[in-house]
Amino acid sequence: MADIYKDSDPQETEEWIESIEDALEEHGLERARFLLEELIGFAQSKGARLPFNTNTPFINTILPDQQPKFPGDRAVERRIKSLVRWNAMAMVVRANNESHGIGGHISTYASAANLYEIGYNHFFKGPDHPNGADLIFFQGHASPGMYARAYLEGRLSEKNLENFRRELSKEGGLSSYPHPWLMPEFWQFATVSMGLAPILSIYQARFLHYLIDRGIVEDTSRKVWAFLGDGEMDEPESKGALTLATREELDNLIFVINCNLQRLDGPVRGNGNIIQELEGAFRGAGWNVIKVVWGSDWDELLQNDISGKLLQRMEEVLDGELLKYVVEGGAYMREHFFGKYPELLELVSHINDDDLMKIRLGGHDPEKMYAAYSEAVEHKGRPTAILARTIKGYGMGEAGEGRNITHQQKKLNEQELLNFRDRFDIKLSDKEAIQAPFYKPEKNTKEMRYLANRRKTLGGFLPVRIIKNKKMKVPDISIFQELLDGTGNRSISTTMAFVRLLTFLCKDKTIGENIVPIIPDEARTFGMDPLFRQLGIYSHKGQLYDPVDSDQFLYYKEAVDGQIFEEGINEAGAVSSFIAAGMSYHIHGINMIPFYIYYSMFGFQRVWDFIWAAGDMRVRGFLLGGTAGRTTLNGEGLQHQDGHSHVAAAVTPNIKAYDLAYAHEIAVVIHHGIKEMFYDQKDVIYYITLENENYVHPPQPASVDKDIIKGMYKVHATEKPVLRLLGSGPLMGEVLAAAELLKKDWNIEPGIWNVTSFSELRREAEGVDRWNLIHPDKKPRKSHIQLSLSKHRVPTVAVSDYVKMVPEQIAPYVPGPYYALGTDGFGRSDTRENLRHFFEVDRYYIVLAAIRGLVIEGKIDNGIAQKVIVKYDIDPNKPNPIKS
Description:
The chain is of the alpha/beta class. Helix content is 42%, strand content 10%.
């Protein structure tokens, strides 16, 4: 303000300051804050344009006289922390000495050790706590610290630690980062894809509120903790849902951001101040922010700072300068930080250079972090972000403390190991220390008893992943009889068929309340808006307004106990809700079944990183790609027409992907999926593409259920097969039409198969091939493709509304010549008929491909192919769709 307005009456200014000072002394902080807010509000109402500032001074939020008394044994806790530090370091060093380049990170946990240990010893509730376990997103690069602690707890062996990043070892190893797929009894959350943990933790906290508000679980004050890095917060997903956390009043959510000011290559904000920047972002989004910048040693300096120059200097200093002080030492810091003002040099004149460098930062001070956590867990109405200043590579000295190379530091030389040992008082001789051995005190020592007792008091060890859900009773498939019977003469889309199925599920008395519909602002597109009134849209606040369509039967209904997540235009948030619901079976011990339906183009293409993480975290549920198919979604054009999501699904290991043509197929696949995931307890995700093209759906043929699940069933058989057509999804109609043309115009009757999943056919065939490869002494097995098609070696034409790579997946396993038609290239805005002709997947191109296949086999004369081109007006000079 001083830069814009010169104080014309300093005496009056001083009187105002004295008034506030009196209010603080007589009535406390809350009253003073109220008075200031009232004054500001009054001034703004009279037209005063006050400068906007979301920042507070660059000091600790909690002042020394506001700190609670530290309840633990500082000496013992420091000893435990030092042991964890040593073993974490030793694990990485030994792994890289054994296998050069195997990787691992020392510096992240070195900076964050105190942040975790305060939580472990005083706050993190374990699985046996009467209130239930807290949910903790551990920072991925800090995983060595979690392994080292689990070693002290007796949960991991020395051999486990020796095999860090060597998971294929005979004795079993430890994964590089938190991966529940690889360590299903240890890790809960996959966090190392930077930016996912913040948004996933927000939606986990919101889903916990959802379960409480719907009366499914009790409110027992469980917390969601997310340990994050300051560099990670630059990812768009990291900040993208901050305002949702405030709107939803997620006071069960605590972010702990390790502000060591460095990312892999260098400073996070060399020319700025990342803590102040993050404070502004979080406060602007409405969060409760607690800054823990300076350790207790600074309290006395601030108290003695009569001139105010120390506070001024703290505000001025850049992050790049703060990092330089760590590296250069006490004399440099004295000259360049304190030396700017004579008053500051006098302030630290009694402290020598060595001691100056030992003045701790807030994140390394147990009392400061305990105070921050205490306030965070008690705060009501808003989420909390704790910004803790630390030093990357803390304790590593010349090996990397505060240096730009520290993230990549994997090894320590002998002297560096000895220095590390001395700094943290590890009871090893020089000869022992230079070997970087794992160190674990006897079980009856004070520190080991303390460690065990603290975790016992708080409910058990963490991280841990325990499956507590029971097998779900799945209703009989007859609840979908309407879909199994077909639609008669009525034309509907597969999307409409799914909505009917979802309605049946939600009304079912057995599992209805377990269904979690999730929609990113496309409910009306998919015809799901009738569910608004039936199920209600979840809102923690309920509906505080009268909707514009309240006079209609199907109005927009928000409710505290609403069942639907209507996430708005927010695929990242919607898939985060899907993940939260799909993990409920083990996090809450309750089988919740998420159905996330979205515009298929904005699924895998936009949030595949989330879906990959969902697979890693063993999420269970259904992804529904609506308005799918490159030619089936007509009119929308290039950015909307999905022709490749099934490629992504096919290479995601635990996704079972289906492109379905008919309502009865949808009923069979979803019923089977519910049973597989929630009765058989398989950790899979089902991906089903749904289209918006209306046509008549036939009744289910007899005895095809198993074949639908396996990926293919017969639609039409011939006595003497010369040709077969494989159709899939919405192009099944084109295949049937092509078959009619072949018979009517060319006297050729093809066999017809409906492929529900090319990827499931490929996986099973590959599995059979592998088994036969490594069991040459056994009778060869046969895949579903072989059992279905091996009797006749004839040309096959496979058609998909996706790129050719999708049907080409099964080419090696189909007997006879194989030709794939697909929709490679960018989409267009046009009619379905024109799009299918443009992409060369309509009935006429199917006929042409079939005839050409027979020509190549010598079954018919070459001239027939030219006649097909002429008869169906196919332009041989038409541009290739993949290039146009």
